[in-house]
């Protein structure tokens, strides 16, 4: 079996005091959608930060395309093709939508207009609102700005921490459809979701994290069908 495109193996670490992650492993292959679910405080966001290089790991290893990136900074990881949309503070509220997307392209030295057009194609509302301050947008529209901003670097891996937080069920479905579209272009998606059932429905692979540990790992369909997972984590 070959190593998955993005592979986080046995990550252990935290914010200085006690460890939050305990041998936590996550992986996603090209064009796949991997979904992380679990209770509040389980360490889902911490695991995402660790994969993105925002946490000092005491143990464990992260590889991208077979290359060991464990020691690299988030900036270096962006250069290697990782895009990350954090759970909070993921847009510049006083800047316009267009400026947010331009900020997303900060590492690019080439012409990024084509990518911006692709983002506008994916999220047409952002084109309509391109000259409006991002802070004036609705929750769902802001999340589109955040995802669009991350896409501006043309990532090979897109990491999303609760992209549907605070949006209505309809907007959630639409966002998931867009995420599937992005994955179909070959981009790997690693995302945390509070809407566990719906997210696992679109997941090639799912992880249930509890107290910083992998509790269940399987295909999205298998987790949805597992009575124990359903009872404990999906509301029956
Ligand atoms: N910056 C920080 N400094 C210290 N401890 C933190 C920090 N961020 C998170 N923690 C702690 O790490 C643990 C895991 O938090 P984390 O945010 O990773 O959980 P989560 O699974 O993403 O939760 P939620 O579903 O609420 O987003 C919690 O106990 C939290 O208090
Ligand atoms: Mg979180």
Automatic annotation (TrEMBL):
Q: Name one GO molecular function term.
A: ATP binding
Q: Which PANTHER family match?
A: HIGH-AFFINITY BRANCHED-CHAIN AMINO ACID TRANSPORT ATP-BINDING PROTEIN LIVF
Source superkingdom: Bacteria
InterPro entries, A to Z: AAA+_ATPase, ABC_transporter-like_ATP-bd, BCAA_Transport_ATP-bd_LivF, P-loop_NTPase
Q: Which organism is it from?
A: Meridianimarinicoccus marinus
Pfam families tied to this protein: ABC_tran (PF00005)
The family line of this record is: Belongs to the ABC transporter superfamily.
- Keyword field: Amino-acid transport, ATP-binding, Nucleotide-binding, Transport
Q: What is this protein called?
A: ABC transporter ATP-binding protein
Q: Where does the ABC transporter domain start and stop, copy by copy?
A: 6-236
